[in-house]
Amino acid sequence: MMTELISVGAISPLRQRLIDDMTMRGFSRETQRNYIRDVGRFATHLGRSPHTATAEEVRQFQIEQHEAGLPIPTMNSIVSALRFFFTYTLDRPDLARKLVRTRHPRNLPVVLSRDEVARLLNATTCLKHQVALSVAYGAGLRVAEVAALQVSDIDSARMLLRVERGKGGRYRNAMLPADLLPLLREWWRLGRQQGVMHPQGWLFPGQNAMRPICTRQLHRVVVTAADAASICKRVGPHTLRHSFATHLLEDGVDIRVIQALLGHARLDSTALYTRVATRTVRAVISPLDTLGALATAQARPDG
Question: Which residues form the Tyr recombinase domain (predicted)?
């Protein structure tokens, strides 16, 4: 039965096939967990193995999700999971084509000022957390990318960070800021003294040094630091990535360079930051200011 897809006991052959398909394509642990959960939603809806599903049942599943008021991002995430499952694991592209993504307006990202970023980083409670958040902001990494970094990913000769476990399994080079390198070396020395850092190990080990730090813990670290720094905005690890991109744009860095640094597949994802780059807006001279022809209140005749 397909309910085994979401069971905590023995892994069913179908679930193992799904895991193998995702692993082969370099999906992160978090993505795999989300896809298994979302396929499980469909399995629960059907009450039987989804390899027997019909196009009408897929359609009804989406209708019920919409009527239940499921958030649009959640529905679209389920579509991504099921499309992958139907296309690659079941070899049923006919079902994948029946899934419909829902368009929705993207909210503007929360961006911290440079002063707020500095306050947040200085409000962390230990060196490991300060360095991890500094990497998130200084290199513009996703939280999962920060957690997955290994010591060997630091290329100090070329001042690069190798991101080998990026979104969708894509590889890219991220920048290694000059001010970040001494901080990383300080963390390396401390981590070696504590016995948690190894040349082939994780850059930010978790409570068990053999495993990386948890992304949820990094989220808690950001929230706690923001609270200690009296930052009232709603923030998370991705806020540092948003701030990195926005500050680069305000400094005049070409948007296509920022796209490559962020690892965005599409330019329109990066272009979103043009809507929150306030320094860029303030630097633009309005054509009204170039007229020089508006009468002042004193010069304007009454009546």
Answer: 107-286
